[in-house]
Amino acid sequence: MNFSKKHAPAKDCKNQRIQTERLEENRRLKKEIQNQQDTIKALQADQNRREFYSLLVENSLTGIFIVQDDRIVFCNHRFAKMYGYTREELIGKDSLDLVPSADKQSVANLRTQRLMGKKDMLSEYEVRGLRKDGQIIWTMRKNTLVDYNGKPAILGNSIEISERKNVESKLKKSEQILRFLSSRLLNAHENERKRIARELHDTIAQMIKHSAADSVWLWIKKEKNKLIFKIKDNGSGFDIKEALSPKNPEKG
Fold it and tell me: What is the total count of domains within the chain?
């Protein structure tokens, strides 16, 4: 009896140590579970964000693309449709393949300067595009330098403006035709004025030549949007149109 009572405290210490270890293990397991739960929540939130951004990109009214190392590494459905390709066909394709030959150099220069971080560049510009079927289209682009997977890339937004450019071209041609017709009309009016002036000059000169009066007066007045010319000598007045040739009647 005395021996058992003497070693009872040692047994209690062992039990207490085991209980303490279990509590520590429980706390460690709870913390690990909590960390896993936090990780799962973060992944779910990230997945939700990815899905949300994916919805935004795919439902955008503009074509969205990313060019890295001269290649298209991402594009949405609208961008692919704009150029007549599928998304799978465009991924990995040289972005300059979507540009007409005559414009490749200027577009390449813009891309190089943007990747170098040049600040005084236009972020928005109009550029021609080349579809898969060979048709040339006009697009408006807004490009930005970004970091994509740890490397510099160009994020672009593009809309097709071919219809607007066609309307502008037709309007410009119409304006040119209108200016040409206006010029012809002005020339015709000027020629007509010169013709009337010549007729008046010749007629009046003849009338003065055959007039016996010491003085001759000429009246010009406007009646009902027409010019009326009258000459008077020695108190007798007559309408100049009576003296004009029947082949050259007065013009209003």
Answer: 3
pLDDT in tens, 132-155: 999 999 999 988 898 988 899 999
Most confident of 47-61, 86-100, 147-161: 86-100
Tell me the pairing of strands 124-130 and 136-148: antiparallel
Same domain, 172 and 208: yes
Distance, in Å, from the CA atom of 208 to the CA atom of 87, rounded to the nearest integer, reads 90
**Residue numbers of the domain that contains 5:** 1-59
Q: How far is CA 99 from CA 56, 95, 167, in A?
A: 27, 8, 22
Q: Is 243 left (phi over 0), alpha (psi -120 to 50) or beta?
A: alpha
- What's the rounded Cα separation, in Å, for the pair 100 and 44? 44
